[in-house]
Write a structure and sequence with these properties.
This protein is mainly alpha-helical. The protein has two domains: 49 residues, no CATH class; 126 residues. Helix content is 62%, strand content 0%. Helix 8 packs parallel to helix 10. The N terminus and C terminus are likely disordered.
Length: 208
């Protein structure tokens, strides 16, 4: 797993699919999540994010967990399974994306991406601060950070035609920035300027 940026003595090799199945059996539990996190075991911490009760989490706990992120998969799993579901998600996305620590900064962008996909009740204007944050903070040469910035920008842009136009403009502006910003702009534009896919006639079974 080290070749994928996942390593350390406390990695067991349990798959995410297996962890999801276990999380369904266990259900939500704030106390169990705390015990799993405190174990320090990589997969136990991913499972902690799956079983934690989003309503029981406060900002200090989220900050403490984010400070302990030590791999991109732990960061992304906790952000998608827990952070984006909490009342603190919108604030933490902006706060963390301004932080210097690489995994915390990536976490901010990961939460933006998660909200863009999952929060169907918010209007386009609510995502404007995310576009500004990417424009201001994407110039980072660290691969895991710039990939997170591109992820956030692409997911926001895919929400609606209006946000796609704003995201394309943001990406084009990044092309005139520093090396990290140029990479993010180019990477995002490869997807955002691609024509949207049209539904296949006959539905999902047409090619079976």
């Amino acid at each position: 797993m080290a070749r994928y940026g996942i390593g350390g003595a406390d990695v067991l090799g349990v798959t995410v699919a297996e962890l999801r199945g276990l999380a369904r059996e266990l259900g939500r539990s704030h106390d169990l999540a705390a015990a799993l996190w405190d174990s320090g075991v990589h997969e136990a911490r991913i499972l902690a994010g799956m079983v934690e009760d989003p309503a029981a989490v406060d900002g200090r706990q989220l900050d403490a967990w984010a400070a302990a992120f030590d791999s991109w998969d732990l960061c992304d799993q906790v952000c998608q399974n827990l952070v984006r579901r909490t009342p603190h998600a919108w604030a933490k996305a902006l706060e963390w994306s301004a932080r210097p620590e690489p995994f915390v900064k990536r976490a901010g962008f990961a939460v933006m991406a998660g909200l863009a996909v999952a929060d169907r009740g918010s209007d386009d204007d609510r995502f404007e601060p995310f576009l500004r944050a990417v424009a201001e903070r994407a110039d980072d040469d660290r691969p895991l950070v710039r990939k997170g910035a591109s992820w956030a920008l692409r997911q926001v842009g895919k929400r609606s035609p209006g946000l796609r136009a704003r995201a394309v403009a943001t990406a084009q502006g990044l092309r005139s920035g520093g090396r990290g910003a140029r990479w993010v702009g180019a990477d995002a534009l490869r997807e955002l300027e691609r024509p949207p896919r049209r539904p296949v006639a006959g539905g999902r079974g047409a090619h079976r």
